[in-house]
Amino acid sequence: MDLTTLERLPLWIGGRAFSPSTTRYGEVTNPATGEVIRHVPFANAADVDAAVQSAAAAFAPWSALPSLRRARVLMKFRDLLDRYRKDLARIVTQEHGKTLADAEGSVMRGMEVVEFATGIPHLLKGEHSESVGTDVDSWSIRVPVGVCAGITPFNFPAMVPMWMFPIAIGCGNTFVLKPSERDPTLSLRLAELLQEAGLPDGVFNVVHGDKEAVDALLAHPGVRAVSFVGSTPIAKYIYETGARHGKRVQALGGAKNHAVIMPDADVDYATEAIIGAGYGSAGERCMAISAVVAVGDVADTLVARLAARARRVTTGPGDAPDIEMGPVITCAARDRITGLIDRGVDEGASLVVDGRKPTVDGHADGFFVGPTLFDGVKPDMTVYREEIFGPVLTVLRVDSLTEAIAMVNANPFANGAAIFTRSGHAARRFEQDAEVGMVGINVPIPVPMSFYSFGGWRNSLFGDLHVHGVDGVRFYTRLKAVTSRWPDDGSAAPGFHMPVMG
User: What pLDDT is attached to residue 502?
Assistant: First the structure.
């Protein structure tokens, strides 16, 4: 293939496709075939500045619009997402590798946040207190913060950006999105649909790139708030760097999500739920189950059923029929995952199902890792301590719910955890005592609906506020308190003393 003839993606600045000034480009591959399918620009500081300046120029007129008019743009955008969701899913599958059904589902979960954001006028209401003093009233209002930036990961190129920008622009801000350079095309299509929905030029901008673009956004004085989803080391870097430059930051990091299986659980149901939660999207989900904690004598039965079902998982290109699991995102990701599997074997874990060398007919160059299952894993093993971000399930055995909860709480990651049980007492205890941001009860991936907020604890979140939901509105607005008095002519003005109400 002549790589010089491949499409070169543009940036999106000021409501149009924008030719970057950078000369650096990266490769975008189809993970199912290993082929390079297009090139993506790595924006430099000048490109980032152009995007921020465009967003800054658009801020005043956009924020001055009545919130209902902003919401109506989002309503039209939501309808366009619904109309084109299968086309959007195909873009996701081509560049990420996940199955079409999974890709379409992620588009729809992003749509739900857009639907939530159409109710922004209600959520922007402040509080009012009459007569806090003699003829004095006080109230609060929420105002937008300015230019906001979103730095998003490869695993959900549709959903995660839509956790951010619909709420940000609904609140009256303008936005610069820096999507993952591994699957960047979908972000440009979202920009086109926003324009079709009537969004004014400059309100939404897209800059592609790597660390250079990220650092330019973090340092730019025109950016007031930064949202991030990705690995914990980068989340910590984003939080510290952004805060050092005076920005409001929410940075969501990595995860090691546990599923606790009690002896009274419906094992057939739990097995199917864990298989989908662990191997869906090839395990490349920040809420994927990776650690299965078997309590008591359920362990042998559970491992046997997980192994049997894992061996039946169909692996192949995401756009093929009847495929349950596609490839991982890159060759480097594949090699990292198989290296961690090697490490698990070396450290003494029992490799029950080995997915290191799957056979996928006609796709020998694809980035495939098959479903992998470890038993007998200990908390000090690398396959438990590290976020694998691949189709690898690890089973740990404990004797009691108390031990299981202690294991969940001792892990440095605290995104989500689930329990499978028929006992209301056990479920309630787990709900109360598990120190994580999201809890599932017989639900393996407890991602909340858009009107609740998504986020973890400990090393899974840096910042005070989670994404979307009411926390999203709080993050993308600032409170302003107003105190008002309308004195009659000739009334005494306040003196030099501290004003006292009453």
Answer: 59
Count of CB atoms situated within 10 Å of the CB of 358 = 19
Tokens (6 digits) for 273: 């739920």
- On whether residue 454 sits in a domain, the answer given is no
Whether residue 71 contacts residue 117, with contact meaning beta carbons closer than 8 Å, is answered with yes
Q: Could you tell me which residues are beta bridge partners of residue 416?
A: 438
Which alpha helices (DSSP H) does 313-396 contain, by range? Answer: 331-346, 382-385
Looking at residue 288, its pLDDT comes to 86
- Please say if the pLDDT value at position 491 is more than 70: no
Containing structural domain, residue 412: 257-441
Give strand ranges (E) for 46-178: 128-133, 136-144, 147-151, 174-178
- Specify whether 286 is catalytic: yes
| Residue 316 shares a structural domain with residue 382 | yes
Instruction: Assess whether 176 and 295 both reside in one domain.
Output: no
Whole-number Å distance between alpha carbons of 196 and 427: 47
DSSP helix/strand/coil, 156: coil
Residue 331 placed within a domain: yes
The more confidently predicted of residues 499 and 54 is: 54
Task: Please tell me whether residue 228 adopts helix, strand or coil conformation.
Answer: strand
304 and 242 in a single domain? The answer is no
416 touches 255 (CB < 8 A)? yes
In angstroms, the Cα distances linking 455 to 7, 248, 279, 346 are 37, 16, 22, 34
3-state secondary structure of 26: strand
Pairing of strands 223-229, 248-252: parallel
List residues bridging with 294 in a β-sheet.
261, 397
Q: How far apart are the first and last CA of the chain?
A: 80
Tell me the Ramachandran region of residue 322: left when phi exceeds 0, alpha when psi lies from -120 to 50, beta otherwise. left
Q: Report the candidate in 373, 370, 225 with the shortest Cα–Cα distance to residue 304.
A: 373
Tokens for 221, please give them: 């004085």
Whether the pLDDT of residue 452 is over 80: the answer is no
User: Would you say 206 and 179 are in contact if contact means Cβ atoms under 8 Å apart?
Assistant: yes
Which residues are bridge partners to 2 per DSSP? none
| Order of strands across the sheet that contains 128-133 | 128-133, 136-144, 477-485
The domain spanning residue 121 has which CATH number?
3.40.605.10
Collapse the DSSP code of 478 into the 3-class scheme (helix H, G, I; strand E, B; otherwise coil) and give the result: strand
Spatial separation of the C-alpha atoms in residues 439 and 443, rounded to whole Å:
8
Q: Which residue has the tokens 């924020």?
A: 63
Q: Which of 325, 329, 297, 498 is nearest to 397 (CA)?
A: 297
For residue 149, the model assigns a pLDDT of 98
> Are the C-beta atoms of residues 181 and 209 closer than 8 Å to each other?
yes
Is there a single domain that holds both residue 355 and residue 467?
no
Nearest Cα to 161, choosing from 66, 210, 228, 207? 228
User: Under 8 Å CB-to-CB from 121, ≥6 apart: which residues?
Assistant: 67, 68, 71
